[in-house]
Every structure is written in structure tokens, then in C-alpha cells.
Amino acid sequence: MSEPQKDSNQKFKKITSVFKEWISGNSGVKSTLEELGFSLLSIITAMIVGSLFILIAGESPITAYQALFEGSFGSFDYFLNTLWRSTPLILTGLAVAFSFRAGLFNIGAEGQLIIGGFAAAMVGYVFTDLPTIIHLPVSVLAGMVAGGLWAGIPGLLKAKRGVHEVIVTIMLNHIAISVAIDYGINNFRDGGRQATPYVQETAELFNFNQLGEHSILQHFPPVDIFAAPAINLHLGFIFALIAAVILWYIMWKTTLGYEIRAVGFNSSAAEYGGVNVAKNIILAMVISGAVAGLAGASEALGTHRSFISGMDAGHGFTGIAVALLGRNHPIGVILGGLLFGALAQGGLHMQFAGVPQEIVTIIQALVIFFIASLQMFKIFLVRRKAKGEAK
Amino acid sequence: MEILAELFSLSVIFATLRFATPLILGALGGLISERSGVINIGLEGMMLFGAFAAVYGSGITSNPWMGLILGILAGMLLASIHALVSVKFKADQIISATGINIFATGITVFLLQVLFNTAGTSPRVPRLPAWQIMDFFPFRPITYFALILVPLVWIFLYKTPWGLRIRSIGEHPQAADTLGINVNRWRFICVVISGALAGMAGTHLSIGAGSAFVRDMSAGRGFIALAAMIFGKYNPFGALGAALLFGYSEALALRVDLPFIPDELFRAFPYVVTIIVLAGFIGKATPPKAIGKPYNKSGD
Amino acid sequence: GPADEDENGEEEATEPEDETLQVGIVLSTGGLGDQSFNDAAYRGLEWAEEDFDIEFTHIEPEDVAEDAQSLRQFAERGYDLIFGVGFQMADSLETVAQEYPDIKFGHVDEDFGEDIPDNVESLNFAEHEGSFLAGALAAKVSESGTIGYVGGEDFGLIHRFEGGFVQGAQYIDEDIEIISDYAASFEDSGRGREIALSFIDRGADVIYHAAGGSGMGVIEAAEESGIYAIGVDSNQNWVAPGHVITSMLKQVDNAVYETVERVIDGTYEGGLNREFGLEDDGVSLSSLTEIDVEEEEAVELESIDEEDLEVIKEMKKEITAPHKERIEELEQKIIDEEIEVEDWMFLDERPDY
Amino acid sequence: MKVQYFLHGEFSFSINESLEEIVEKITTLLEMRNITKVFPGVKANDNVNLKIRKGEIHALVGENGAGKSTLMNILYGLYDPDEGDIFYKGEKVRLADPIKAIKLGIGMVHQHFMLVEPLTVAENIVLGNEPLNNNIFINKKLAVKEVQEISDKYGLRVDPNKKIENTSVGMQQRVEIIKILYRGAELLIFDEPTAVLTPQEVVELFDIFNALRDQGKTIIFITHKLGEVREITDRLTVLRRGQTVGTVDTESVTEEDVARMMVGRDVLLRVEKNESKPNDEVLKLENLTTKDHRGVPVVNDVSLSVRSGEIVGIAGVEGNGQSEVIEMITGLQKVDGGKIYFKNKDITNESPKKIKEFKIGHIPEDRRKRGLVLDFDLAENMILGYHHKEPFSKNMRMNYDKIYSYADDMIDKYDVRTPGYHVTADSLSGGNQQKVIIAREFSHEPELLIASQPTRGVDIGAIEFIHQQIVNQRNAGKAVLVVSADLNEVMSLSDRIAVIYDGEIVAIVNSNEVDEFELGALMTGSTPDKEDAK
Ligand SMILES: Nc1ncnc2c1ncn2[C@@H]1O[C@H](COP(=O)(O)OP(=O)(O)OP(=O)(O)O)[C@@H](O)[C@H]1O
Ligand SMILES: Nc1ncnc2c1ncn2[C@@H]1O[C@H](COP(=O)(O)OP(=O)(O)OP(=O)(O)O)[C@@H](O)[C@H]1O
Ligand SMILES: [Mg+2]
Ligand SMILES: [Mg+2]
């Protein structure tokens, strides 16, 4: 603190090291830009191909994309709602990415999200006399714990029994639906909604459009811009960002992260290095599941104020794509989540322009294909460059 | 006693086979792809797209056999995308297959709207005829195909040179490469075959057993097929056994009321059983060694 | 918010013109093609478009999180009348309606109770009453003494169908065997078919479904096993000619049409929960004796041919016509409140049967 | 003028070529001319020239990363050269893929075996060229028969029906050889075939080489062991940093000459060490036993002690239990019977983490599998096993500043050839990977150092360095336990040698009291009393 110069230098170092780590080649900012460029290029390519489908549907791609962009970034409200839509995607993306780093494929984020959402909503509903300061954290934690335990099952089986985690997580996705939706909602709902009862106000995640109502904040003029009822953004988004930072910190700054990555890359070497492989596999799955559970809690307590059937909306699977788009790095995952969130948010506006909403789904898939395939193009370019340099 | 009789009644056995049909086909498809080293969690999407195309084909030609062909072709088409992205362009196989699944949900509903002007259930179309064999077995053709394919796939994998090559490619692609076997071409072919089988499974859902396309009608069967494949230890007969077990528990669940277990939870029974069996008795299903890794010849 | 309504409105290509009534409808997830209330509500607007000076736009939210946004988008774009479909959307609609007191709203399938906002008209249907008749007919038609019910997802509204059906069947025959199960999905026709086949294995010869796309499987199973199915929501008699003895019609189309009509007339009354039952044909069975319009339409659309129509005619004559009087009698009794059909929607514990 | 030459193919001569040139042309089977191959960031081959004569055994030597494997992979059609031409039997050829090479009669036994483990020997051999029944099914019988024939003809003992995963390394190598003979190879390339063999197996391999040469085959032989070059080859070519240093007749040079050519300076070929001064007992194994998954003992009743200030070597043919002994000491494998004492403390079945804390350093036998996380950068690899300790971390927080500066130091001190600590271990050559491990294990000043195959696949320059480091440890009063398949290494490093056979220690001898062949005999179990027992 006494040496601000040095302090900021170190900060800069840290920031650049984040980027460096993001790029596997460790070759610095230049290739980060390249990376972004390629992602952008593949998104553009996907949209060009997507426009073929729009033409098939008999609409104008230009109008459609204008609406898409308008709807996701066209106004402050829309932008905030893009953030809102990306919240569960960032969280499931982080969950999947974290497990990937440990060499595990958590295809069960979907199930963990469901179980987490259900647990959070139940805790949020059942306790009636708790103050917010206790009720909210307890409800959120309930979701994380439930998701974590749910993911702990495949972790445990993998670590102790060598059972492939993919098959177990697929099974658990189906079981989660049975437990939380078929059985859970059926036994706890009141009224005709296919949902658990609304959670108590004390367990609701704070919505940004309530900022103006806050006793202290309402005197700040800028707070007004949040006042629109159309804004759905809630505290869950902040949780997602915090989760990204925490996971990044765990993964790259702690011995736990070091050990998890070692196990992920080479469990024999990790074992040789004194790492308890089984413990780390279980931990990695539990952490991953807890984050997916947080996604469920955030949707249940923030977006729907209850656990509602259809709430998962395939976020767990989209999370796989988000994680891979983001190269399993928290920053990449946030960007990937934002992209898919923007597609979802803007997709609604595209419908108003007469384009079937499935276009959004198709574009999501195309983005995945092109990001993946353009990797090839990049390798080609890099090789060309290397050859040039070597000569 | 009645329950006991029910456990092995003909109707349960028939229902088991009906449930198992798409699972067997999916599992065989997954098996061929994964034996060559390419993970195929895109079976779900290929099934769904196959189901749609079969309805379209049967609808416009009024010939369900054309529907079958189109269903198979559709599965192959999606599989070629998966192969192109993951084998040729060497992208991560899981990301590519995830893309396939997302794409299939989007494209089927999109085409439903463009072609049938509905987003939910297609019109009914001519379905494959029931083939009564010996006045006894009451199945649709694809069920027989699935059963016949099990030994065929087994013979293909274990008795023919192609099978030998495929197995070696999945275990040690460099070894195959050094003997002049074109690893990536074979992988491409295997993925496309798996798409054909998944497409056939989807066809069974839409115009084999049924007669119309309903959005998202694959309803997770592709994933269950994958589970059957792993559960069956990457062996065609093992996959058959696993698919039959899953089918059996589903068939039973619909017919027998078990005491103590709420109905809704009993639906999860096959999945729970699978986990318990995997954890307790069957032990490890060892996947092919080179699975999931794109093959790079000469560092290119 | 409402403040920047103008800004947004101006840029839109679909800016509503002044005279024409602009109607928006947000369908519930599952969307168009569900052969149920989404389709029916949409159809009601199509009719209205033919008869009145209106334009309408529909939106299918990608997931439940989009409901409120979709409604609000219509409001922000200055639509005059906005419909929401499905009980899952009710809370969203209530919120948005309160934000835009000057816009009129309509909602299908949820009773808002006393607190209904002044600018909302809710359209509700006594599915249990219609299902009662379906159950009664099933019991009449069944020769085996075993009938079945297949639901889609397992929740309140769908229990209402089940409840009506069970009560109707038991009214006719106290000892009738009724088997029921839920497909846990509105889209899994494969499971719907297998459930129906398992019923058939257990002797069922009439099966009623309230299972959306999964119900397609039920009808297919009935057709291939040579037993009878009862359709739901829309007229499904033509789907498997000769095997669907009737359909429990839920006239969402009429109701929606009439709401538009009232807005055009200026007789629209907000703050009202409308109930449509047997009395006003809000729910009913399709004709047990005559060919219905929808069945004729199906021929025009070439979904079925004349021969199929003959089969339907024949079936009606042989199978359902003999029970017409009894069913009509029951209908009257319900209308006269001589028979009280219990609504199972809010039951915590469904009775054993 | 065109001449049909009886050995191979057609040659064209111009009238003004000298006789020498013509003879050269006729006897040359293969010529690689100005070959250049670039990998991202590396010029693996830089204008390399190589001429191979018909019927010779030609050694290709050079340090790790000199470009030997790359050159051979180009010849076998696996890599496409960026520049340069290949002439085979006088004709310019383009080797687009292995099929082309195989058709021409070129076969290669790769450094890492190219065998599919769950398949049988015969299946591996016929893979890609399967004999058929009805044009559809593999004719297994014929396959086995053909394999048997080749096996008989060249004296290559294999069991055609055994699965590869159940065969010894030596047999796997013979399978590789049969694989290429089955395809009618004339020119056989061997990339470091002896690295994994026992002395006896090497002798066998060389017999095979001779038999092949007698049958008119030509052999290119890559090795790091100059004794082997001396023993079996006719000529040798040296590569250094991707370039050809030269080709010479083996007889005309000494090992020192070759070593100098390879590294560009003088090299110490023998380990220099003085008399050992052993002190207290540091490690004591008492009746150590472990069983495999079938319950068969793999290590049986092994007792051994290592004192401070001495190097004890374990000699043995691979697969006789030495790996398990090491893994039991280091906590990586469960001990089923017996005790392990470290400085009189019972450490039986302690966790690997605990064992590390006792200051027991371990250089594992398989650096790629155990020793390194290949996808980690060097810095992270340098702290593997010590990552939870200060200064690298505190309270679970990693301190990367410290880690990086430590890694820099280690790279300097242990002469790791790398652009920096930020590259992944994967991108280093084998020798340099080994140095990373050595740096890591030595820098924590172990009381007991366990070194398993410390120089396997490592070039002479690096071997010299690694051996010196090990001797330094011993001189500093540390206890050292060395396991090596390389007899030379065991003999020159160790003060005492324990010979292990079939899971049991069959003899413990002073290293200056035995010779290579006595040891070799002990290792294969042919001790007099053993034979009596049978
Ligand atoms: N596929 C590849 N991609 C990138 N670089 C490579 C590749 N193969 C080899 N190299 C690099 O090319 C150089 C030469 O490698 P090569 O394998 O030919 O060496 P070598 O002489 O066989 O070494 P060793 O004695 O260790 O086997 C090395 O610097 C190596 O890192
Ligand atoms: N794709 C690659 N990129 C960079 N370097 C590579 C690549 N593939 C191989 N190499 C390097 O090429 C060199 C030669 O590889 P090779 O397989 O011959 O190993 P090696 O150095 O001989 O080690 P060892 O014999 O101990 O396994 C090694 O340094 C290896 O790391
Ligand atoms: Mg090499
Ligand atoms: Mg080497």
C-alpha cells in the first residue's frame, strides 16, 4: 500500500497473467486478441449460415439480426436482461468447466441445477419467520449443498469404484427429474401451477429494479435507471461473477486447484506427487455440482421465486457448450455465457420480427460448430507462421 | 403370485423389446463410433432428426420405407457434421456432439413449422407395417432389424478386417496409421454408421412404433442408449443385454404397482438400478484407450 | 418501462396503426401445434381476424423465464389486447397487466380470484365437467369393464381431467376398473403409447388422454390394438378414424374469439373471471351422432379421405349414438347442478379408485 | 547408358562418371537429400543428408532432439518433408504415407511400440493386410500360420495367439519386427529398440539383426548406446541439432570420437567416483511382499538395506518386481507383508505425501506417466509433490512469484534446455524432461534418493550430467537406491548391487566384484543353486 506504483504494477502483472493462463500457449496478449478474433469470426460465420435458415423461413436476415441485436443490447434494460439471461448459463458453464479441469465430464449439471433449484425453493418456502439476512443465504446454500451432494455421487463412484462419471451423471439427470419435478412438485405444490409454492420474501434474490426502493440508495439519481419493472436482472448475476472469481482463484491460486488440475491432466503423476486423487475427484465434482446448484438456486429464488417445471430449460447442456467456448476458463465462460444469454434475450425480439425462435437454437449450434472448426483454421495459420519464422 | 406371473408374462416381454428397440440401435451406433475412438453423445440429436426426416419422407411419398431411408440418411447427415467437426477439424468431440444435440432440437421444430406449419405434432403419416412372424411375434420391422443387427455388428467388429481396424484405431491410432490404415477416414465412416443406426432408432420412434413426429420425442433415449452401451461394456451383446434390462424395468414399471415406492419415484428405478449395478457388481467398463482424442497424423 | 414506450415504438417496423385492433398472444411453452389450448387460442384469433378489423402476432417463449418479458414486449409496442395462455403464465400476466392499466388483457386457464386486475379477463373451462361425460361414455362403451386414463405431465390442471373422467365412469358403473398413469411429458408419444399398451394388456378397451403430444401415442396404440381412445381439447376424432369415439372439446377458440369481439364492441369487461362449462358449450363432447365440422375440414385438408369419414360415421352410428341420450341426460343434470362434479385440481390427495 | 543391375532396379549412368561414383550409385539403397522439416518453432531436420547401402547395418546417432526420429518418420511416410528428395533404389520417390513406404519395402519399428494391447500378436501383425476367408472374414488360422512361418525363418520367437498386453517387452519387439517382415520389408528402421531391453534380449536382438543382414536386409538402427553401435553396425551417421555431422565407418572411429561428434565436445563416458564410505542404515526392507490383483505375489520376501553414503543398485530384467519394490517404498503401492523402515522408523503403507515429508526423493521409472504432468508448465512441474509446502504455498495459497523464481534457478542449475519455465513439459525432449525431475527431487535434499531408470532414453550428454548428480548425492552422505535396466549403468553407479529375479532378491554383490555377464546370468535366474532347485 505504501508503494502504489509497485502495487499497480503487480495488478497489471496479475491481469496479464490471467490472460496468459487463458491462452494455453502462454504467448501473451497478442494471441488473446487472436483468440477473440477467431471467436468473433466464428460467430459471424454462424450468423451468415443462420441467415440461410431465416431466408428459408421467408424473412429478411437483416431485419432479424437487427432485432436480435436491438433486443439484447439495444437499450439499457435489454442489456441488463441479457445479463439476466446469461446468469444460469455462466453458472452451469463454470460448473462444467471446473469439472473439465479435473479431467471429469460433468454432463449432469442439468440434474444438479434441478436438485439445487428444488432445495433452494423448498428452504425458501418452508421457513417463514427468518430474517432475510439468514433466510436468503441459507436458501442459496441449500441449493449449493444439494447440487454439490448430487454431483458428489458420481464423484464418489468414480473415485472409489472407477465408475465412469458420464453414465452416472446421465442417470442422475433423469433421477433428478423424478425426484424434484415428478415427486417433489407433486407433493408440495399449492394451486395449479406446476411449481413449488412461492418462496418467502425473505428468501427472494434482490432484483435490480428494486434498487430505487432502497432507503439509502434511492437518493442517488443514477439508481433511477434501474427502476423499470421490465428489468429482471437479480442478485444471481452478481453471484455468478463472484463464483467465477472464486473458481478462478481456487483453480489457479490455491494448492487445491493445483492438485485438481494435476489429477485432471495425469492422475498417476498427481498420486506420485502426494496428491490424494480420490479426494480431489470427489471435491472437484462437489464444487462443480455446488455451482450448478447455485444456478438452480439463482433461477428459483431470483427469476421464478419458486421451483417451476421447465425451469432448467436445458441450461445444463448449454453450459457444456459455454464451458468449451470459454476454453474452460472463468473469463471465457463469462463471455460465452453472455453470448448465449444475448442470443436468448434477443431471440424474443427476433420473434417479433416474424422469425421462428428456433433460429436462435440453430445459431447456438452453428456457433459451436464454427468455433470448434475454426480452431483448425487457426492451427493452419499458426503453422504457416511458424514455418515462416523457422526459415 | 399374480405379480410373479406378470414379471415374466408375454406382454411384459413384448413391451421390453419395444422399449429396447431404439436403445439397442442407439447403443450399437454409439458402440461403433466409440470403438473407433469418437465419443458420440450426439446420438440423441441424430435420433430426433432421424425421427423427423422419417415422418417427412413417409409423408411426401406415402411410403414408410422411403421414410425409413430418409430417417437413416438424416441420422447420417447429422453424423457427418459431427465427424467433419470432430474428426476432420479435430474439435473436441463432446463439444461437437453437444452442438449436434442442440442443432437437432432447433432444426426439427424449425422444419416442422416450415414444412408442416405446426410446432408441436406433425400430421400422421403412413407407418411401417407390423410384421407378424409365425403368427406370434408382433413387432414392427425395426425391432427385428435391431435384433438382427446385434450379431451382425458383433461379427463385423470381431470377425472382419474392418472390425479389427476399427478396434485398433480406437485403441492405438498411431499403430494403425503406421500400417497404412487411414485413421480419420475410418473414424468418419464409423461416426456416419452410428448416425445411420441412430437415425433408424429415431425412425422407429416416429413411424415404426408411432405414426407422427412430436417435438423432442426422443426424450433422452439417445443418452440411455449411451448408458446401455457403456453398461454393456462396449460389446454388442452386452449392449443388447443392457438395453433389454432398461426396457424390462420400464415395461414392468408400467404394469406392476410396487408397494412402498411412490409411483413418480419408481419411474427412476432403471436409472437407480443402473447406478447400483455399476457401482457394486459390474465394475469397470473400460473405454477404448484413444477415445475422445482427435488423431493428428504427423503433427498436422 | 412505460416511459420509453414511445421511443421503442417508433423504431419498430410493426408499429401498430391506429384503427386496426392490435392483438398479441403469448403461447405457453410447447407452443403452436400442441393440438390443445395453444392451437385453439390461435384459431380463435384467426377467426377474429377474418371477421373483424384486427391484426395479431403470436410469440412462443423459449422457456418459462420469458413469459413476462414477452407480455411486456407486446405492451411496450402498444398492442391493444394481449392474451396469455396457460396457468404457468398467470402470475406474469397479472404483474404486467398492473404495469399497463390502459391495455386490455385476456388469459386462458387460470382463475385469478377476487384480486383480478381491472384490465384482465380470464377465461376458464370446466374440464372436469366435460371429462365427466367422457368418463361416462367410456364406461358405457367399455365391454371389458376396464378403462384407462393417460395424463401428460402430472399436475393440478391435468388432475382435473382425471377427476372428471373417474367420477363420470363411476357414476355409470361403481365397480368399473379404471387405470391411470402419467407420461411425465407432453412430448413423449413413445411413452404415451407404451402406457396405453400396458393398459390394454390389463384389459382396458377405452382410454382417455389429456397428454398433448404424448396422447398421439395413446391414439396410435388404440388404433393398432383395435380399441377406443377419447381425444382431448380439440376434435381428434379424425386422427385415427373409427378409433377415437369422441373428443372432450375445450372451446378456447370460441372464448378467445368472443373476448376480441367484446373489445371491438366496447363491451369488454375487465376484472372478470369467466367460467365456461357445459352450459355455454365452453366444454363439451364432440358429436356422438353427426359428423363435426372439424372432421369435414380434415377431409378438405386431405388429412383423411372420404372413406375415413365413412368409417367415422359408421363408428358413431354403431358405438356412440346409442349412448347419446344417456350422456345428454347427464349433461343436463350437471347443468342443473343435480350432479356435482368435484374438481381435483387442488386436491392434495387424489382418492383411490 | 542404362544398366539393369541385379541388386535393385535400373540405373542410368552418364559416360563421364567415375567408377567410384558408379559403384556408389549401385550400392546405395537409399538416399535422403537435403531434407528439411519444420515443426512450430523447431527446425527438426535442417538440410539433412543420409545414404544407406544395401545390406548394411547403419547407425543413426545423436543427442535427444537431434532429429533422428523425425528423419525416419519422413522416410516411413509419416511426415511430409518441407524440402528435400528421397531416392530409393536410384529412383526418386514421394512417400506420401506409410502404405507407399511399405510397398517399396521400407518398414519401421518405432521408439514407442505401435501395438494394440487388447489384440493378439497375430492380429497386430496382420492388421491392415489381413488374410481373408470368402473375401469378408479374417482367416485367423492362415494369419497364425504365416506369423509362425516368419517367426521360424528368422528365429523370432512369438506366441501368435497371446494378447499383446500379456507379453513381455522383448516379445513385443519381436512382434514389431515380424510386423514389418510380414509386409516384405527390405529396409528395416529401428528407433531406439534397445532402450527397453535386457542385455540378454539385446544379444538376441543383435542375433536377429545379423540373421536379417544375412538374408539381404538393410537396417537403420537408432541408439544412444555407443557400445551397441560399435558391436553391431557397419557405418554410422551422426546428427546434431537437426543437421548431419557426417557418416563414417564404425571401425574407423572410437566411441569418444562419436560422442564428440554428437555433442560437439569431449564427453566423460565412465562415471567417476571414489570408494564409498557408508554410514548409518537409512532404508531397511524386511520381508517385503505384495500381491497382484489375482493374489499372486509379485514381490516376495524382499529384504534389503541402504546406508547413507552408498549407492545400492537393483539389477533385474524388467517385470521382475523391481518397480513394485520402489512403489511400495514410496507409498504408491500397498504392502501386503513385511516392513519398511526409514531411519528405524516404520513407514510401511504410509501415504506418498508422508513419504515425501520424510525426505525421500524419487525419480520414477516412467517420467511421462508418473514423473510429470505433461500439460503443466515447467514451473508447476518443478514443485509437484512440494506444492503444499513453503515457500511455494502457504495456507493453501500458491505463491507463484516464488515458484517462478525457483523454477528459473533450477533451469539454470540443472541445465534444462528450454525457452523458459512457462512452456509445458510436453514440449521438452526426453532428456530435458528427466532433468526437470532430477532438479525437483535433488533440490529438496533428500536423505534417501530412489532413482528408477534415471537415464532411460536420455542422450549421452545428459546421462553424464545425471550420473554425476547422483554420485554427488552419495558423496554428500545421502543414501541412494538405483534401479536400472541398463546393466552398464547399474554397474558403474552402484557400490553394491542386489539382483532381483521373479520377485525375489537372488543375490547381493559388491559392484567391483562382478562382471556384466555374471550379473546377466543372475538376472535371468540361471544361478547354479536355482537350477539345482528345479
Ligand atoms: N510432432 C512434432 N511437433 C513438434 N515438434 C516436434 C515434433 N516431433 C519432433 N519435434 C521436435 O523436433 C526436434 C527433433 O525431434 P526428434 O524426435 O526427431 O529427435 P530425436 O533425435 O529422435 O530425439 P530422441 O533421441 O530424444 O528420440 C525436437 O526438437 C522435437 O522437439
Ligand atoms: N506435438 C508435439 N509438439 C511439440 N513437441 C513434440 C510433439 N510431439 C513430440 N514432441 C517432442 O518431440 C521429441 C521427440 O519425441 P519422442 O517421442 O521421440 O520422445 P523422446 O524425446 O525420445 O523421449 P522418450 O524417448 O523419453 O519418450 C520430444 O521432445 C517430444 O516432446
Ligand atoms: Mg526419437
Ligand atoms: Mg528418445
TrEMBL record, chain A:
* Tree of life domain: Bacteria
Record carries keyword Transport: no
Q: What is the lineage of its organism?
A: Bacteria, Bacillati, Bacillota, Clostridia, Natranaerobiales
Main subcellular localization, coarse class?
A: membrane
Q: What is this protein called?
A: ABC transporter permease
Molecular function in Gene Ontology: transmembrane transporter activity
Give the record's GO CC terms: plasma membrane
Q: Does the keyword Cell membrane apply?
A: yes
Question: What subcellular locations does the record give?
Answer: Cell membrane
- Write down the membrane topology: Multi-pass membrane protein
TrEMBL record, chain B:
What would you give as a GO molecular function for this chain, any one? transmembrane transporter activity
Location(s) in or outside the cell: Cell membrane
Membrane-spanning parts: 12-31, 38-59, 65-87, 94-116, 136-158, 223-248, 268-287
Q: Which UniProt keywords apply?
A: Cell membrane, Membrane, Transmembrane, Transmembrane helix
Question: How does the UniProt record describe the way this protein sits in the membrane?
Answer: Multi-pass membrane protein
Gene Ontology CC terms: plasma membrane
What is the protein named?
Branched-chain amino acid ABC transporter permease
UniProtKB/TrEMBL annotation, chain D:
UniProt keywords, alphabetically: ATP-binding, Cell membrane, Membrane, Nucleotide-binding, Repeat, Translocase, Transport
The record's listing under Pfam families reads: ABC_tran
Which Gene3D superfamilies does the entry mention? P-loop containing nucleotide triphosphate hydrolases
Q: What is this protein called?
A: ABC transporter ATP-binding protein
Q: Where in the cell is it found?
A: Cell membrane
Query: Where does the record place the ABC transporter domain?
Result: 30-266, 283-527
* PROSITE patterns attached to this UniProt entry: ABC_TRANSPORTER_1, ABC_TRANSPORTER_2
For this protein, the record's InterPro entries field holds:
AAA+_ATPase, ABC_carbohydrate_import_ATPase, ABC_transporter-like_ATP-bd, ABC_transporter-like_CS, P-loop_NTPase
List the GO molecular function terms: ATP binding; ATP hydrolysis activity
Tell me where it mainly resides: membrane
According to its record, how does it sit in the membrane?
Peripheral membrane protein
Tell me which PANTHER family the record gives: CARBOHYDRATE TRANSPORT ATP-BINDING PROTEIN MG119-RELATED, GUANOSINE IMPORT ATP-BINDING PROTEIN NUPO
Q: List the GO terms this entry assigns under cellular component, sorted alphabetically.
A: plasma membrane
